[in-house]
Amino acid sequence: MEATVNVNGVVTSADQAVVSVFDHGFLYGDGVYETLRTYNRRPFFLDRHLKRLRASAERLTIAIPLQDDDFTQRLQATMADVHPSGEVMLRILITRGIGELSYDPSACRRPTVVIIAQAHREIPETKIRTGLRLVVASVLRNHPQSVDPSIKSNNLLNNVLAMQEALHLKADEAILLNHRGEFAECSQSNLFVVRDGKVLTPPLDAGLLEGVTRNFLFEVGTDLEVPVAEAVLRETDLPQLDEMFITSTTREVVPVIRVGSHQIGSGRPGPITMRLLEQFRRRAHETARDPAAD
Ligand code: PDD
């Protein structure tokens, strides 16, 4: 593993980075995380990611022991020597901390703060040219009254199980349905479709992670005067769709050409998807040049 890691302020190589087996993040998945990437070596939308990190932590009643400026410094210290000529992927993890085997939060004195910095690997351009193949997983997205998908938690078994199904079928991603049988999101990304010139994505109420990229896509759509809205979507809508794509921090915007046995639209990456991707990248690079823009 090629990475630099920061555990509670101490920066080491990947093989030297250690967290206790009594950490409740390890024992119970009791923690939260964010994945960021840099453009021009600046963490993109750091403010939005930290806001979501704090919101997730609050839902688990984990008190994050760092201010935003502390995060900025720690991220810089961790990524300084990583992939100097290229972009970096950063993962921030906050766990409940080290404590006795107990579900009582008071068993842990202080949260553990980990940052992993690695070279960012762009999604291969061939995938963008050919488009992704998705499957609808048999495992349902967690019910919002169970492990709420809007919390970006380290408890990722729901996502892991869905992605295992996709991998088994040699697909690129898995779509998860919610308990009502509606599309919610994918195992590691948000889902969008294009129908009659409109871009649609499942509403937050479908039970999903409110992606930073998903939210940004509404702004990118406005730039292009392409309407982007929330709508309930189901498998029965697949034959009527013109285009489909997924969004995430690490993958930006990636076209989808097939879901299971259904071809989407022409079976090739769609023109609206490609315009959104182009504008997304333009805005991301602009923001990286001009910090005041985000
Ligand atoms: N994944 N939905 C899920 C379940 C995700 O795990 C992610 C992000 C997203 C997209 O969110 P954003 O646009 O804020 O990256 C949606 C990240 C990349 C990860 O797990 O590493």
From TrEMBL:
Record's keyword terms, sorted: Pyridoxal phosphate
InterPro entries per UniProt: Aminotrans_IV, Aminotrans_IV_CS, Aminotransferase-like, BCAT-like_C, BCAT-like_N, Class-IV_PLP-Dep_Aminotrnsfr
PROSITE patterns: AA_TRANSFER_CLASS_4
Keyword presence, Ribonucleoprotein: no
Cofactor(s) this protein cannot do without: pyridoxal 5'-phosphate
GO CC aspect terms: cytosol
GO biological process, one term: amino acid biosynthetic process
A GO molecular-function descriptor: catalytic activity
Family: Belongs to the class-IV pyridoxal-phosphate-dependent aminotransferase family.
Protein name: Branched-chain-amino-acid transaminase
Species the sequence originates in: marine metagenome
